[in-house]
């Protein structure tokens, strides 16, 4: 009974055993309990060392993980910085493109306005030139009608002058029948040679009147072409003037 009590109490902590009970124990019991306590203490120390080794190993693993995470974090921060710079560059490029597009739109609107004005002026000039051309065509038609009328009048005047000349020749032949030889119209008499003073022989320009009219018509056409070319190309006026000066 005493042995069982001592074994049961040996498992207890010696620091908790009161001094009276320790004095009642024998030397063998005290040595045995001391060795047992030392063994338990060594076991606890070994277990504590193992636990510390495990803790250190886990701590090293955690440190390695922390270092890896720090490296990953640094890499991510570098990537984030590069992405920020790229975003800033792209934003600047976008702003420049937007500004350039606005300038191009403004330039396009200005160019379109200028082109519309130029087109309007060109259309107005074309209308004016068409009006001038129509007026010149009307004038040419009127001149053509005048030329035809003058040609008809010239033809009528020529026929009348030939009739008058024949009548005058007949009268001259009748008046000179008693005093001189009679003109038979074969050119052998003096009266026949005197018939060269008829109006047809005194006015030879009447025979060239159609040629004169054609020349006038061509001059008018040339003037029309010159006016149109000068209106379309103002520099042609200087070339024309230099050409006329050389002539």
From TrEMBL:
Domain of life: Eukaryota
A Gene Ontology term for the protein's cellular component: bicellular tight junction
Any coiled-coil regions, as ranges: 27-86, 119-146
Species of provenance: Vombatus ursinus (Common wombat)
InterPro entries: CCDC85
Keywords: Cell junction, Coiled coil, Developmental protein, Membrane, Tight junction, Transmembrane, Transmembrane helix
Record keyword Transcription present: no
Subcellular locations according to the entry: Cell junction, Adherens junction; Cell junction, Tight junction
Listed name of the protein: Coiled-coil domain containing 85C
Entry's family note: Belongs to the CCDC85 family.
Region annotation Disordered: where it falls in the sequence: 172-200
Species classification: Eukaryota, Metazoa, Chordata, Craniata, Vertebrata
Main subcellular location: other
Transmembrane stretches, start-end: 211-244
Pfam family, one: CCDC85
Entry annotated with the keyword Nucleus: no
């Amino acid at each position: 009974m005493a042995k069982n009590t001592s074994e049961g109490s040996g498992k207890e902590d010696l620091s908790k055993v009161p001094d009276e009970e320790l004095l009642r124990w024998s030397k063998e019991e005290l040595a045995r309990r001391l060795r047992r306590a030392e063994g338990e203490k060594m076991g606890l120390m070994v277990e504590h060392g193992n636990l510390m080794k495990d803790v250190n190993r886990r701590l090293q693993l955690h440190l390695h993980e922390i270092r890896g995470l720090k490296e990953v974090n640094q890499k991510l921060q570098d990537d984030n910085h590069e992405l920020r710079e790229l975003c800033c560059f792209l934003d600047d490029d976008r702003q420049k493109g937007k500004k350039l597009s606005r300038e191009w739109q403004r330039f396009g609107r200005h160019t379109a306005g200028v082109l519309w004005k130029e087109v309007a002026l060109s259309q107005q000039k074309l209308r004016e030139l068409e009006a001038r051309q129509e007026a010149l065509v009307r004038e040419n038609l009127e001149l053509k009608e005048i030329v035809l009328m003058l040609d008809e009048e010239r033809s009528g005047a020529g026929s009348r002058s030939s009739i008058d000349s024949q009548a005058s020749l007949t009268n001259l032949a009748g008046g000179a029948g008693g005093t001189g030889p009679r003109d038979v119209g074969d050119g052998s008499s003096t009266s026949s040679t005197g018939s060269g003073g008829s109006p047809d022989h005194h006015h030879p320009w009447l025979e060239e009147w159609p040629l004169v009219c054609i020349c006038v018509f061509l001059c008018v056409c040339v003037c029309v072409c010159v006016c149109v070319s000068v209106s379309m190309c103002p520099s042609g006026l200087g070339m024309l003037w230099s050409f006329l000066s050389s002539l």
